[in-house]
Every structure is written in structure tokens, then in C-alpha cells.
Amino acid sequence: MLSLAVSPLIAVLAAVELAIAATPVISAVGSRFFTSDGDQFYIKGIAYQLIPTDPLVATDQCKRDAKQMQDLGANAIRVYHVDPNAEHKGCMDAFADVGIYLFVDLDDFPTQIQPTTPSWNQSQFTAFSAVLDEFQKYANTAGVFVGNEVLTTADTSGAAPYVKAAVRDMKAYRDSKGYRKIPIGYSAEFFHAGLIACSADVPGLRPMLQNYLACGDKDAERAEFYSLNVYEWCGESSYEGSGYSELEKNATGYNIPIFVSETGCREPRPRLFGDQASILGEEMADTWSGTMVYEWIQETNDYGLISYGPMVDPKVSTEALDGYPRSGTPTTVSPDYGNLKSQWATLSPSGVKLSAYSASASMSPPACPTSTEGGWIVNGNAPLPRLGQSLDNAATASSDASTPTGSAPQASASATGGGTTAGNKEITGMVVGLLGVMLGFVTYL
Fold first, then answer.
1. Which of 149, 224, 232, 299 is catalytic?
2. What's the Cα-to-Cα distance from 101 to each of 304, 325, 328, 430, 431, rounded to whole Å?
3. Rounded-to-integer distance, Cα 420 and Cα 102, Å
4. Is the pLDDT of residue 144 over 60?
5. Which of 20, 35, 213, 423 could connect to 223 by a Cys-Cys bridge, CB 3.0–4.6 Å?
6. Res. 317 pLDDT band, cuts 50 70 90
7. pLDDT tens digit sequence for 380-435
8. pTM of this prediction?
9. Helices within 315-418 (DSSP H only)
10. What is the pLDDT of residues 212-271, one digit of tens each?
């Protein structure tokens, strides 16, 4: 009797496992993303960070949000901070069930690469590895970021080799563990226009950083995708007037996938999301792999597409943080949600089939950028810093500095984060300086 009772359960579990395994996985091939079914993959994504530490631990909330995102037309989310020691299966399955993929940042507040005092050390490596260890288990993990907006001004370009070293070592770790080749890349700042607190455009870094992370004759060191946080298309703008034509020009012929990792300028109101028709339409879809809109939840920064009800006193409900509830039934924010839904409903680029593309998928890397006075300070052909090599040591690095670290001991560190949610739009500024240290790095470069 026991065997008869258990066998149906085993069958159900086997079916569930089969369904999960059947989720097509995403790979980077040449300059495009493809599913394992051979279809080109275009991102229609949403920034999703309900709480500072990890939004992928509350299964019931994920199910509610996944259903609403399916109505919106989304197929991806971006999560900035996670706890690698938490249980994520419920949420990852909930999103997989509606065809939604995850792009997740490997860093956290304590482990992110700093712009003015950059490092890439064992503690960071261990924390990044722990996140990769956790999320490589899920077929709907589409990509991971080694950093977000690390370089924000021309005099922080000296941090770029540390970003690229992180790419190198995480690729080596992934491959040494036998994980599938989940694409590893970076999310850069372009220009935050229309914000109360905005950073300046960084023409001195554009397109140098973009080319730097994809250049060189060592595939092991090159990023596998590049993305930009872009807030230049505001109100009734246009492909030319917004500067998107310049984005397209800089990306034409790029050798790895490129996409918009944040967009959604909020001034003037209402948000029309007119840029979606360019990114996912005939002007850019042959070069760009899609877009992610900032952000899902309504909070102080006023970018939300949904809310979880009226504001509450944070002293009464500590879960509400800034007074905005962080869980519940999603209620759409009008007209933003409807405007985005309408845009996406008309935009379904088909791209090319992998079978037709693979023969021409090999594209030459861009030339590595050289230093320019008053702008980009990195010699793109110089060796990368080794794991644990400090800024001072890097100034006298020898030619073996680019030697990959290869595999490392099993990571177990927890990166739990803190502070506010995805943070970028609430940052009021960033201190830049330590010019003497940067000049020491120039000596090395």
C-alpha cells in the first residue's frame, strides 16, 4: 500500500522537474541572445527590488507579481541585491511558469567595486561566487552583472580594469564548476535626465568603457554582454532628439549583446515609454537585445508601475520602509502601467534563428581604447589586475598581471546588503576624488 501511495507523488514530482528542465535557457552567441530553442531573445524587463536584501524569497508575493507582469507583457526582471543563502526556488519557479527570466547582480552594498578606491579581492570573489552558485541552478537565470554604474565620471575610469578582472575571474569560476555558460556582463551609466538628483553625462567614458569591456584578443577576459542605464528619452522625444541615434551608432558592429538595463524617464509626466518602439523596433532591434524599465514598485523616487496599496506610517509598519507597502496585491499605477503595456503589445521583434545566425556569429572585438587627456585614463591593452591586487600594487604590475585566477575554493559567504532598495535613483550624489591614487594607477596603465 505504501508503494502505491508514494508512486503518484513520485510521478508528479518527476513531471514538475521535467517542466522546469524544459524552460529554454538563454545564451549569448555573437552579438545576440538566443534561447536553447534557437530563437533570438529580446528583453522586455522590469527592475524588481521590493526590499533592500532580497525580493526573491517570498513565494506568494512572487506569484502575484509574476501574474501581473505577464499581463504587462514582461519576460525578464532585474534584481540588484539577493541573499545567496536564502531559498529562491519558489520565486524562481513562479517567474519561470510565466516565461520570465532573471538578470541578477552578483555584488551587494559591501562587496561592490568602488569607483574611486577600486578593488577586486578574495572577499568580493567569494561573495560573487556564492550568488552565482545559487542562481546557476535555475534555467530562467538569463545573465549576471559584475557591477552597476561603477564608473560615473571620467576620473573614475581607473576602476574599469577591476570590473573587467571580475568578469575574467567569474567566467573562469563558472567554467571550472561546470556550470552552463550563463552570460556575465556589466551595467553602465549613460545619463540620468529629468531626475531631481542626477549625475552628469560622461562623454569621456563613452564609448570607451563599452569597447574596453569587449576588446582584446583573450576571450577569457571579455564581457559577454554590456548594458546601459539610459534616461534620455523624456516625454515627447524622438530617436534623434533623445540621443538614441548616437547609442545605435556606438553599438553598430559591437561583438557582444548590448541592451538597455534601465530606462523610464519620469519628467515630464506622464511617462509615455516612446523609446520602446525604437529599441524593439526597426531602428535598433537589429543591434540591441531589448530593454528593462525602472521600476516595478512605487516608492519615494516615484518610478513605480504598481503599488501595494495606500501609504502607511513606517513607524507602525516597519516593512513599509519609506511608507510604501512592500507586499500585497499589485495595483497598477495609471497611466504609466497602461502606457508601457500598450507599447510592448505592439513590439515583438522576431530577430533571426540561431541556425541562420551562427555561421556569421563571430564578430571582431573593437579596438581597445587608449587614454585621453581629461577623459578616459586606461590603456585598454594593459594587463588586468590579479585577484587581490590593490591599486598601489597595480601601479607597478608586471606583465603576468592578466593571469586568470582560475577556479577558487567553494564560496560560502552571504551578501545580504542593506539600506534602501535598488538605490540608484535615490542616490543624491557620489564623492569622487583621491586624484593622487588615480594618478598612481595612470603610471601603471
1. 149
2. 20, 25, 22, 31, 35
3. 21
4. yes
5. 213
6. confident
7. 999 999 999 876 444 323 333 333 333 333 332 222 233 334 444 433 222 233 33
8. 0.84
9. 336-345, 354-357, 391-394
10. 999 999 999 999 999 999 999 999 999 999 999 999 999 999 999 999 999 999 999 999
Residue 319 is among the residues annotated as catalytic for this protein: no
Given the residues 134, 224, 232, 262, select the one marked as catalytic: 262
**Residue type, position 445, single letter:** L
Output the CA–CA distances (angstroms, integers) from residue 321 to 4, 50, 228, in the order listed. Answer: 50, 10, 28
- Cβ atoms of residues 378 and 445 within 8 Å: yes
Give the pairing type, strands 331-332 and 290-293.
Answer: unpaired
3-state class (DSSP) for residue 430: coil
Query: CB under 8 Å to 313, separation ≥6 — which residues?
Result: 320, 323
* Residue 124 contacts residue 113 (beta carbons within 8 Å): yes
366, 215 Cβ separation under 8 angstroms: yes
Evaluated on CA atoms 99, 359, 250, 226, the torsion sign reads: positive
3-class DSSP state for residue 176?
helix
The dihedrals phi and psi of 306, each to the nearest 5 degrees, come to -140, 165
Q: Does 221 qualify as catalytic in the annotation?
A: no
Question: How many other CB atoms are there within 10 angstroms of residue 140's CB atom?
Answer: 23
Amino acid at 237: S
